Amino acid sequence: MELSQSISFAALGGHFFVGLSRAMILFVVTSGLSLVLGVLRVPNIAHGSLYMIGAFAAYTISRLFGGGSTAFWLALVISPFVVAAVSLVAERLLFQHLYQREHLMLLLFTFALMLILGDLVKLVWGAGEYRSIVPPQLLKGSASIFGSSIPRYNLFLIIIGPLVAVGLWLFTNRTKMGKIARAAAVDREMVGAVGINVSWVFAFAFVLGCFLAGLGGALVAPTISVSLGMDHDIIIEAFLIVTIGGLGNMWGAMVGSLIFGLTQSFGVLFWPQFAIVFPYTAVVIVLLWRPMGMLKSVW
Amino acid sequence: MGKKGKKFLSVGVLLMGGLLCLSLLFMPASAQARNIKVGIIDCYSGPAAVYCNEALNGFKLALKEINKQGVLGRKIEFTTRDTKFKVDLALNMAKELVMRENVDALAGTINSGAALAVSEAVAKAEKIPLLVWISKSERITGEKGHRYVFSTGENTAMAGKAAGVALSRKPYKKYWIAGDDYEYGHAMADAAWRNLKALRPDVKLIGKSWWKPGEPDLVPYFTAIVAAKAEAVILCTGGRSMANALKTIRAMDLTKKVVPWIHTATEIAVLRSLGPGAPEGVLGTSDYLFYYPDTPENRAFANAFKSAYGSPPGFPGFHGYITAKFIAEGFRKAGSLNKEKFIDMLEGLKIDSPVGGKLEMRACDHQVVLPIYLGVTKKVPQYNFLISADNITLSGDEVMPSCEEIMKARGKK
Amino acid sequence: MVKPGSSLRSFWICAAILVVLLFLPPVIPRFYTYILASIFVTSLLAMSLNMVVGYGGLFQFHHAAFYGVGAYTFGLLLTKTHLPMLVAFIAGPIAAALAGLLIGWFCVRLIKLYFAMLQISLGSLLWAIAFRWYSLTGGDDGMHGIPTPSFLFSSTHAYYFILIVFSVCLLLMYLILKSPFGMTLQAIRDNPDRCEAVGVNVRRHQLIGIIIATFFAGVAGVLFVVLEHSVFPDLLFWILSLEVFIMCLLGGWFTFIGPVIGAAIMVSLRTFVGIYTQYWTLILGVLLIFLIFFLPEGIMGFISAKLGSKPVEGIERAVE
Fold it and tell me: Which CATH number fits domain B36-154+302-369: 3.40.50.2300, 3.40.50.1820, 3.40.47.10, 3.40.50.300?
């Protein structure tokens, strides 16, 4: 297939913004995954399931409040907390007993959790219909930027992403809890030795990470059809992103998400037939160039 | 106990365990009074489950009616297996249904890979009739067709031809082709373009783009299409991706700049989920609409379906329903449970269609003859979701490949 | 993990099991011969993976890619060419091993999760090729009704063929793991730094390990085609890789025979629980969690630990 002949400035700009908005959703999800990886050393395959639960919860909540604009904002705020509650239960019941296990066992465990959560979502929400959330009035329709029309909702995502990043940075660098969590990521025995209840620090970090997964799910819900299988769709991408960014590094997740989102978006522009392989190729190149990811890993 | 003894014991324990498992496996499948048994393999997990559950509902609804009078003094019963959209599981389960449950016929599935695999490795090899009810691959009854496989749904060849006929009547010249990057999308695109080009040699294809199935963000693709100044776009997507596509069309106001045609865009499963958020002005084709044609039979069928399952039927419910009817009628005509006789009777069999008139199972390729309805999405006051308006019916003969073409395709491989 | 003294006894036990399996098809229903054959194929795949995971300590996360390469090569050669079956049969594993060499060559430069992710990316590119190249591979539908030789068409014959190849491969894998090379591989798993220090070329050994493992994965792929007459892109998808990985952990990844147990459990569970409920993955998930809490070494690991046979050293060090 020939390359697209006419790549105008408008198209470039349009694809840049679209890639950016996709990257922001990926960032919200992967920053949570990265946090859990960094602090708890848990490669959480069930992260994608929590993202899916976030989307389903957002659907139900927005339905509950009548489906209007207010309902959307409420869903966006509440559903991450629903996911956080689910993850808190999982953490206290199961995860906290397993932190000392080898990574592969944790992997097996989170895989099992993914299987369970996937079927639970099916039990709770059923598989009988497609679900869809309408974005609020404010974010409907599209805006014209550089001569190409971008949905307003995508622009909203581009604003949300950096906000989450800054919030997370403030949390890890400016709050006591965040500092302890960072310290625990480096040396958990030492943190325990100075008299801090590490167990609850871990629980908090875990829940926060899952909260972000839920937020990602709620954010993505208005752009897609909420359905089973969302967990599979995102989890491998999410792991690739945190790896190329540098395991456990929040800014690494940002860099990885940008690489992923933008290569995908520009891939479509330059070589639509094989757009599918661009992000994977980018991962291969990054890992061969910097075997430990772009930014410093805490591992 | 010495080390050797322990080792021996461990192996002994293992063997015992193995034997126990085996004895569990040997529990025979229930063999009560012999009903007609249909084994259903389909995907009841993941995004495709929406359609599969509806097809099953249609099938169940028909069974309720059929079993009131019975078939050859028996009832038709069914058992389902969840393939999770995986071909290996589908094979595994189809074999289990045939070899262990001894089903009289197989039905399913939405996954065309699974349909083709089961068609070859189970239906053909074990001589069991397979009725495919959702998968739209034209290869099932086309080049890969054989004596034991039937299709009760429309396929890409039919939809593509319908699109070609319909689009050739429109003024557009500059086309773009886009869609889900898998067999369904490509087959649909090929069929639509081939037919359109044959009817209107002056149309021009200015570009193509394919995204991975389930791609969440279609904005970049659509942006490129608008940037290239296409007049119409042949969009080859379905199921869950369809909802994404329609949402993006709405969010970008795409229909103002370029006219999209999508097979099954007028399908209720997606339009209902989007509610008033679906875009108007999308050209769509479907082989079943519960409000068109507005015949008493169709109304009765739609109402029965709605009162049983809470919402009116879409095409999967329709396909599931007629599949059951074909099975029942085939066995009635065959007069016994003999599968070969059943197949002979099914060839060319005509049943009453739930939309009125007759439906024929074409003898030459085992493909049911279905009309295709072309319409455009529109808001109407009586429903809280969009429907297909300004419908045109393209009859089955108009949209189906001829028997000669099918035989040629089968011969060439 | 068998000591020299007891190896003779193990040999006789294995021979006895083999004889039992040889005489099963006439007495059990056809469906169970099919399921057994399916278990052999999956087991071979899981054992080949375990050579590099359990014995090599590598995060081989996309092993199914090589399984798929083997299956596709075999299927393509039978469908598109008129080469004899034997050539196709040998070409499948060789193609898989070549893919293993190519991907492994990049991957051994990395460690742990980085290794895993690089392999998933590279393996996914293979998957994309199988998924996209319609004219050759049949795209996402795959190829069905692959014309395997007529003497393999009946399910009983396929069963015997698969059983024999499986047994031979098992023996070969056992011998390789007992060889000096296999021992070195395990030493590298336990302490790569020390091995490097005494002059072992760690990367080369790991790469050879990967090539051998992918070769056997290719054999498993070929056997899959013999059994099912189909190839499709799911065979190269990461979900299958993860499932196979889980089989190793489930059965006991530091035991030779563990993956067979894991594969047998997964295959029978999905077949026989799937009859009663579509929620069998829920049951599988719960079962796995119980295993993790109560049998962390996998089933075989538990049995050998209970019976006091030689504990496996370096389990903890292998991964952290």
Answer: 3.40.50.2300
Interchain pair A120, C282: CB under 8 A: yes
CATH number for position C17 = 1.10.3470
Residue scoring higher pLDDT (A18 or C236): C236
DSSP chain C: ---HHHHHHHHHHHHHHHHHHHHSTTTS-HHHHHHHHHHHHHHHHHHHHHHHHTTT------THHHHHHHHHHHHHHHHH----HHHHHHHHHHHHHHHHHHHHHHHTTS-HHHHHHHHHHHHHHHHHHHHH-HHHH-GGG-EES----GGGTSHHHHHHHHHHHHHHHHHHHHHHHHSHHHHHHHHHHH-HHHHHHTT--HHHHHHHHHHHHHHHHHHHHHHHHHHHSEE-GGGGSHHHHHHHHHHHHHH-TTSSSHHHHHHHHHHHHHHHTTTT-S-HHHHHHHHHHHHHHH-TTHHHHHHHHHTTPPPPTTHHHHH-
Per-residue pLDDT reduced to its tens digit, A253-279: 999 999 988 998 888 777 766 777 888
- Architecture of the structural domain at B157-286+371-399: 3-Layer(aba) Sandwich (3.40)
Whether the Cβ atoms of residue B80 and residue C105 lie closer than 8 Å to each other: no
pLDDT of residue C319: 39
> Distance between CA atoms of C129 and A83, rounded to whole angstroms?
37
Nearest CA in chain B to A276: B212
Among the listed residues C220, C133, C96, the one whose alpha carbon sits nearest the alpha carbon of residue B181: C133
Chain A: residue whose CA lies nearest to B242: A225
Cβ of C286 and A98 within 8 Å? Answer: no
What is the pTM (predicted TM-score) of this model?
Answer: 0.87
Q: What is the pLDDT of residues B328-345, one digit of tens each?
A: 999 999 988 899 999 999
Distance CA(B211)–CA(B215), nearest Å, equals 6
Mean pLDDT of A154-180: 89
Q: Would you say residue A266 lies in a domain?
A: no
ipTM over 0.90: no
Would the CB atoms of A280 and C121 count as touching at under 8 Å? yes
Chain C positions touching A291 (Cβ under 8 A) are 109-110, 114
Quick check: B99 and C34 CB within 8 A? Answer: yes
Domain ranges of chain B: 36-154+302-369, 157-286+371-399
CB contact under 8 A, C31 and B100: yes
Closest-CA distance, C141 to chain B, in angstroms, reads 4
Look up residue B340 and give its two tokens: 């070969």
Lowest-confidence region among A52-66, A270-284, B65-79, C190-204? A270-284
Nearest chain B residue (CA) to A148: B223
| C-alpha–C-alpha distance, residues B354 and B153, integer Å | 14
Chain C neighbors of B24, CB-CB under 8 A: 272
For residue B71, the cross-strand partners are B74
